[in-house]
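Reply to dn_fold:

You asked what the input looked like. This is it:
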Amino acid sequence: MNAAQRAREANARSGNIRVRRNARTYSLSGLCVRAYCGGKLHIHMSKGEPVIYCYQKGQGIAGHCQQHTMSMNAYEEQIEEYLSSITLSADYQQRIIEAYIREDDQVSSFEQTRQALTTRLARLKEMYEWGDISPQDYREKRDLLKSELAALPPDLNSRKATLEHLALYLADIGASWRLANQEQRNRLANTLFQSIRVDNGFIEGLTPTPEFTPLLVLSHQTRLTELREKEKDTADEVSTVSIKRKRRDSNPRSRP
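and this is what came back:
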């Protein structure tokens, strides 16, 4: 049995840990987990600064835990660096909507159903205005059609509006984090992330909340593309310099 498996079993045995009513809220409270086993980590003050530690290890429940007690400040700096690097391309809405359509084969059928129900509502209203149906029949049929419409997934226009709202939230998010106090940072972090996987001073991964997943994944892909292009440009520059040097050395000027 390896250490990660033992730690997982310790998580299951420990049950719920009571939290003091006067417990402080730190920026990463409730979010950090051990990268190698997923166990929850806790935060408390030690020598005037918040530290992240394994409670179960301290209690002797997870004796094989590999996580050391680390300053929370190191993780906060990495979070700020990540948030400051979030970049969305100008066509982010189009790319995400296209991804929605590719991944959901039913999008087109949902849109057809929505259009059909909307048309039926309009015709029903016309029939009522012309006196072809009673007020009671109109209300019953209208409410039924509206309930069917409400049960459909959001239309593409609604999704675009939601994406625009979320993208606006991400604008200058790094500066917002830097200027926020601990409780504000915690609310911000919980809005963006479900969990933060850490390993002895380093953030190994972030799990976004469902609503922010498309934007953060796209930002990550954009960032990777930029880094690859930068590495390629650097490699081309090195290659060019190397070739020029080789040519110059192979054709030395004649001595006077």
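Strands lie at 32-34, 42-46, 49-53, 70-71, 193-199, 202-208.
Hope that clears it up.
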